[in-house]
């Protein structure tokens, strides 16, 4: 049995993979949301200006058994390094360009748990064949894989394959991603929390309901979804502008991606766009997805002048209760260990970044350059050698 690997670099080829991509997802390949055909095809439609398509496809005879959704971008050393550690003063200038292979969905969309879709149980074999194919390609310098689930079978296969076909690689911690297992009903879930957690979940709702009419509903009308998304985005911006920040719904690509994604997700019964209303006024919104028994909390937004009632906490309670009612098994809070997430979640996944370079001059230059700019321990050693504090 020999695997054949090819690269799809045009949109007709992307579209031709739709059915086999969905079939792989349904067999358990990849993350149900972030690895889905819908998420990746919608991202490419709105972010194709960032680079060139590179879908790595593995076939066993005529059957597609693996799809690795990548794209090729030309970025400066500094742009890659800022994504790694955030904006700050760097020790070395970084204007040199490097050709980067990265996941579709990378960047501001914040795709978590990204990974190649491969036939379950064949991760090592298929990922190895894909990386062997990539290792002889000459159109890129850096393979930059952000926000992988550290414990996914494909991630371990990538680690092994990178070392085998590319040599030394770099692994960096990115985020913790809290999640809650849902044992059944909402009351069953609350019973898994601490006494204080159960008390707060019930108390904050009771406080809001005192002398006020409280309602919560999920939007389900395709005809008015665009208006509902506008309302949600406006509320999100208001929340962040009150703290002097712009929020995330600030450019046409991001907004366009989510408007289209919401329409398609609603048609698939994935969208959970929940609105909290108090005295007939909409005050808070929760934007989430329910895919294959896993609910993903993507964003929230709401009015700031009701902060003493902690509307976000109340809205989140409704969202978790809805997930339990829909018999979801997991409520995923995604990247970042913000305090409010830890009130609801006991478990977490770890997101990591893996980097490897081709054995060419530019690849080696980038790895040396970024190590000095992003490795704090190394920078301190260099400063000590130079006699600087």
Overall description:
With 389 residues, this protein is an alpha+beta fold. Helix content is 41%, strand content 27%. It has 2 domains: 207 residues, Aminopeptidase (3-Layer(aba) Sandwich); 146 residues, 3-Layer(aba) Sandwich (Aminopeptidase), CATH 3.40.630.30. Strands 1, 2, 3, 4, 5, 6, 7, 8, 9, 10, 11, 12 and 13 form a 13-stranded mixed sheet that branches. The chain is globular, with a radius of gyration of 22 Å. Helix 3 packs antiparallel against helix 10.
Determine Rg (CA atoms, Å): 22 Å
Low-pLDDT residue intervals, each spanning 5 or more residues: none
Please describe the biggest sheet, giving its number of strands, its sense, and whether it closes into a barrel: 13 strands, mixed
Mean pLDDT rating? 93
CATH architecture assignment name of the largest domain? 3-Layer(aba) Sandwich
Global shape: globular
CATH top level assignment of the largest domain = Alpha Beta
Report the portion of residues in β strands: 25-35%
CA distance, first residue to last residue: 59 Å
Number of helices: 14
Tally of structural domains = 2
What is the share of helical residues? 40-55%
Q: What's the count of strands?
A: 13
H/E series, N to C?
Answer: EHHHEEHEEHEHEHHEHHEEEHEHEHH
Any idea of the CATH topology of the largest domain? Aminopeptidase
- Structural class assignment: alpha+beta
Task: Describe this protein with a few key phrases.
alpha+beta; 13 strands; 27% strand; single chain; Aminopeptidase; 13-stranded mixed beta sheet; 389 residues; 2 domains
